[in-house]
Amino acid sequence: MEAISNSAGFAGMGSGRLRGCVLGLLVLLVLSCEQMVVGVDLSDKEQASVARFQEYLKIDTVHPFPNYFPVTDFLIGQAKQIGLDIKVLEYAQAKPVVLMSWEGTEPLLPSVLLNSHTDVVPVEFANWKYPPFSATMDEAGNIYARGSQDMKCVGMQYLEAIRSLKASGYKPQRSIHVSFVPDEEIGGSDGAQKFYESEDFTELNVALVLDEGLASEDNNYRVFYAERSVWWFYITAKGHPGHGSRLLEGMAMENLRISLDKIAEFRTSEFDKVKSGEKAEGEVISVNNVYLTAGTPTPTGFVMNLQPSEAEAGFDMRLPPIVDTDALQKRMDEEWAPASRNVTCRFIQKKGVLNKFGKPSMTLLDELNPWWPLFQESVAKAGGKLARPEIFMASTDARFPRFQGIPAIGFSPMSNTPILLHDNNEFLNVKEYLKGVKVYEQILQSFTSPTEETPSKSSTGAFTETIHSEL
């Protein structure tokens, strides 16, 4: 707009009033074009909702150096518009947690927390159809942006659902809290982990957490009750160096090759369970070689006639919460990295699979969990269908409340959508986004309206202990 206002053509006109009128029309044209959805019929209310989503997506919070202050200002503005109480909490410098609250008519009841993260992963700009922070909408209504699926869509769906409920005059019985946390994409140690361990969180008396899930390529929404724990490790093999022509035993590369073969055999056996349909991907142990290094470098490559004295490989392994970790560690010690073969294992991350009660870190999604039938009913009322509950194959911030024994459901209402989180040309269709808002409206009403089925204990601890005593 600065270029228009300084245009020499406008400066040459004799009438300031004419210049102002023309400029005003151009501004209106530009703004209306930004909001217009070509080929998609939306109401004024829906267009305003989509515009707010696009505004959020345009805020660059990409790693490795996300600037969280612009997004914090945006969220503060949204909270004020909706009429929510707001706190900005900072457990690590320049990494704010934005906490919004809608107090219920019975605030002593256990509350519901809606969590999402504000950060996004890096992008390969050259491989995107549209600029990844432009939130461009095409003629089919697909909004292209980093974070459109993971997971700025969910954060705004929370707020749009609350905005709609408040406008209708609805008053929740129990309080609803909405948290926007930083750094999920790099482990959450300065974001969600510190928040869930804080007195700020304890004071909320949270009985249930909703967090992110995953898009579904068919008509059924995916829902997650647990996730796999991360084991990242290096295996290092050592041996005497030797001439490249010699057939020697116990060389570093040979020692590492045996380890790689053993790990590949195990990986194949786990993958076969998925391919046969015996188990879902989240129910098996995945282990993938992500790093490999060996050899003696030269300015132009490597020394080709020298067998190196050390070789190393790195692995990303994910464990479902029902794994016997002692047995797995024994396998690693005896087969993958035995000292007898001059091989060692070093962990970068090694997360447990049990919660603080010593039980598998998962949320029961059956009749023992009073939230689950309410959740199912809400999705059905909104016209959605649920797939069979799954274990999330990667990790999310939901692992932190689950560790404390607090039920957490992973859910991102995106059906008929290709899974594009962390991928090029990530997008979400506007109709799917708006359907998700309606789903959350139903969920929030079911969770916060007075019914016989809704949990009503005044102590979150007592509720969670009751749930986990049945495991």
From TrEMBL:
What EC class does the entry list? hydrolase
Q: What GO terms in the biological process aspect are recorded for it?
A: amino acid metabolic process
Catalytic site positions: 119, 184
For the Peptidase M20 dimerisation domain, which residue ranges apply?
Answer: 225-335
Cofactor(s) named in the record: Zn(2+)
Cofactor binding: number and manner: Binds 2 Zn(2+) ions per subunit.
**GO terms assigned for molecular function:** aminoacylase activity; metal ion binding
Which subcellular locations apply to this protein? Answer: Cytoplasm
Tell me which residues bind Zn(2+) 2.
Answer: 150, 185, 422
Bias type Low complexity, positions:
450-460
Per the similarity annotation, which family is this?
Answer: Belongs to the peptidase M20A family.
Put simply, this protein is called: N-acyl-aliphatic-L-amino acid amidohydrolase
Species assigned in the record: Marchantia polymorpha subsp. ruderalis
